[in-house]
Each structure stands twice: as C-alpha cells, then as structure tokens.
Amino acid sequence: MENFSYTPQRVCSKQIIFDIDKQHKLHNVKFVGGCPGNLLAIGKLVEGQDAQKIVDLLKGNDCGGRGTSCGDQLAVAIEGALKQSA
Fold it and tell me: Looking at the 3D structure of the chain, how many domains does it have?
C-alpha cells in the first residue's frame, strides 16, 4: 500500500492524506481542516472503492463558485497519485 499526501487549492481543507493499494483501491482517506462532518463522510464513502471510479465521480464538483471543492481536490489528488504510481 502506498501513502499519498496532497495540499488542496482554493478550498477550506489544508491537506488530504490517503492510501492506494496494489489493486488501486482507496483506504484511510483523511482531510485536515474543512467541514469535519462532510469530509469524514467522504472518507467513509470512498473506503475500499476503486480510485479511478472516485476520480470520475468527484472530479468537477464545485463548492460555492470556487471552481473546485474538497471532493474535486480529492479527485485531483488521486489522479496525480495514480499517474505517479504508473
């Protein structure tokens, strides 16, 4: 299992930490800062899910006209991690 850390842009959360296993499944997704209840829920919902599926699902989600969201930033982080692991 490989651990990743990402610094999100233009959102309330300050860091996203997650693991991707050899089968490209997500584990231990944690957000530092941001809306605790919502971000804890995202972490629970994506646990064990296929990383690319989560990118496809969350990429482009907007929060308050920022052009991004914590979910979108998670997708960006996962996408980068998958490219790095390839």
Answer: 1
